[in-house]
Amino acid sequence: MLVIETMAFPPVEFMRELAHHDTVEIEQHEHYNKRSFRNRYDILGPNGAIPLVIPLRKGKNNGRLITEVLIADDTHWPPKHIHAIQSAYGRAPYFEDYFPFLRALFEDIPPTLFEFNVKALSLVLRLAGIRIDLQRTKHFIPYNSNEFEVIKDYYTPNSIDKIPSNPYIQVFSDRLPFVPGLCILDLLFNIGPETSLFLRTSRLIQARKDIAS
What we know:
Blueprint: E1 2-4, H1 12-18, E2 23-26, E3 40-45, E4 48-53, H2 77-89, H3 95-106, H4 113-128, E5 133-136, E6 149-150, H5 184-191, H6 195-201, H7 207-212
Parallel strand pairs: 1-2, 1-6, 2-5
Antiparallel strand pairs: 3-4
């Protein structure tokens, strides 16, 4: 059993962890941590990685129960994210196959960050052909649990560049070296139906040691 924090579109390296488990529990009894991918994901632009942030309702969110964190409803962020994704991946090989599903996702935004993330993660798992029993924790699972495998906050914006990555062809490979640490959308749009096989071929067993060192 793997326990993770909530993310909408996790990094490719994180998704490789998920692809090696049959059951995954999303921690719903934790508190929001702003220094994470909980409301952020990175896509690739012509000049490198572009962070896209899901805006939150104004107020003190850091330390708030994750299921109570509300998405801002006074901005026009969904069209902006859709436009950014379309601009970045419009010429990717499998863009047309997956983009309609993403557009539909952004047209129906739940009020809370947690619910949106669960909805988004469920979608990308389905599009990637990864069958996982996605559950929610019944109580808080500590990081040092002896009962579960816990990888909460191992993959963060500050640590992702320390994690080994397996390169694949990206949309701007003609002008940029391989850019690691991007979200699962980058892999989906570029290699399509091979995504599941790519994620399952190797597991980042060394990753946590690299981050800790």
